[in-house]
Amino acid sequence: MDGFVQLFADLIIDAGLAEECIYRKRSLELPGFFRPTKEWDLLAIRDGVLLAVIEAKSQVGPSFGNNFNNRTEEAMGSALDLWTAYREGAFRTGPQPFLGYFFMLEDCSSSQRPVKVREPHFPVFDEFRGASYMKRYELFCRKLMLERHYTATAFITSD
Predict the structure, then answer these.
(1) What pTM, to 2 d.p., does this model score?
(2) Which residues sit opposite 152 in a β-bridge?
(3) In this structure, what CATH number is given to the domain that contains residue 28?
(4) Between the CA of residue 157 and those of 21, 53, 64, 147, what are the distances in Å?
(5) Is residue 62 a contact partner of residue 68, using CB atoms and an 8 Å limit?
(6) Tens digits of per-residue pLDDT, 92-115?
(7) 84 to each of 7, 30, 36, 42, 53, how far by Cα in Å?
(8) Structurally, how many domains does the chain consist of?
(9) How many other CB atoms are there within 10 angstroms of residue 137's CB atom?
């Protein structure tokens, strides 16, 4: 994911932020509310003001089911932790930062295959019936933005 993180850094620099304000590979910890710190993939900080935070994740097979649950819980928890820390003043009184989530999934038959759902007590939402892991990740990224957990998300696939 290093290449993507560098691309994000280049875009931020091209938009006018000085390179020394971009953190990648070092000094990536931010305070959390539910835990002491969280290490992110890219931070943009100018004059003590947190401007942008980006998380970049990927998944390859074969265990798409277990990893899907872990990745979704991780992304939701990280957003909740950051926004709660922000509310509680962990980043001083700066404006609300940009929070981005980038996800790349292996494009293969296992990630494209429809997945059954178990509904022993209550029905799942219709969009999950027959959805592949690829579709589930797409829905997940859309819902992260819909619910304003992240400012922006990007979901791509690659073989």
Answers:
(1) 0.92
(2) 100
(3) 3.40.1350
(4) 30, 22, 14, 23
(5) no
(6) 878 999 999 999 999 999 999 999
(7) 28, 12, 13, 19, 15
(8) 1
(9) 24
